[in-house]
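In this section we walk through a basic example: taking a raw amino acid sequence and producing a predicted 3D structure, encoded as discrete structure tokens. The instruction is simple. Fold the sequence below.
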Amino acid sequence: MKKLFLEWIKKYLSDPQLIILGLMLILGFVIILLLGKMLLPVFAGIVIAFLLDGFVSLLVRLHIPRRISLGAVFVVFLVCLFVLLVGFLPLLLGQIRQLFQQLPSMIGGIQKALMLLPERYPDFISEVQIKNIIIFLSSELTSAGQRLLSLSLASVRSIISVIVYLILVPFLVFFFLKDKTAILHWLGTFLPEHRGLATEVWHDVNQQIGNYVRGKIFEIIIVWVAAYITFLALKLDFSMLLAFLVGLSVLIPYIGAAVMYLPVALVAYFQWGLSAEFVYALIAYSIIQLLDGNLLAPLLLSGVVNLHPVAIISAVLVFGGLWGFWGLIFAVPLATLVHAVIKAFFARKEARDQEAGS
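The resulting token sequence is shown next.
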């Protein structure tokens, strides 16, 4: 057994390029896990600058000088940030506060609806089972409310940190965009000289993830606006909040769209009951998801990520189980990284076998 293990290591892990790639990946994950909270503004600045750099490069390809392109993109970013903070955030917080005010009556409506089930379907469900379900739902809603309350209190206590982030992150974004080449050159001095395989994986992942994230941002905005206009036309309560959640749901492929049926259906039910308006709301949401899945997403993300749907769902389940909410959000980029590493590993092995054979 020991001999087989040593032969496997010699066959697959004797390439210094693979060892360098593995060490760089491990170092990156260790830095994120250990210093993630402390360096959160830096990581946020890197992600935003990474996204904006694609638009700067697009303007440069249109023969616009890089300084002018950088300035224009950065100004647009600041304007969008200001609009979100001044226009969107108060409306969203207002609807969240309104939802909490109506939550007790909603819970009461759920209890009344559930208590009618034993009378209508005595052979399938009993009153004891309904009471157990109500107790479970009440405890879950209470704990969720307590978590949200503690989160809001924590956010009140850390309001200074939020203000610092709002000032610090735009500065970091600007300097990451402006001094991108110098920063990458400086980081390169700390890396091994023979890192061709790692560079190859980086270029592959950079192109795929960059295109994927930018496409997802456009998809979120379009789905968000379409859902908001639709819900507003139907006069559905909490239109902005629901539309915002529907837009964010596209970040979790396949699962997010299915999960959002529940809040949309609940709000529509408590507003209209089992009426025609309730059915129209569900049909409208279904049409939005069908258009997104069959038209918008293929148009924006066609050929961007070469992953099978089974691999994407598996990544969502695995990374979501490991890291919770953030694992769900970054499941596809992480799966793309894993896929690029595996592809580079076998390509390197095949190249070495061909060299040995010749």
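Looking at the output, two observations stand out. The mean pLDDT is 76. The chain has three domains: 16-93+171-194, 104-157, 195-353. In the next section we compare this with other chains.
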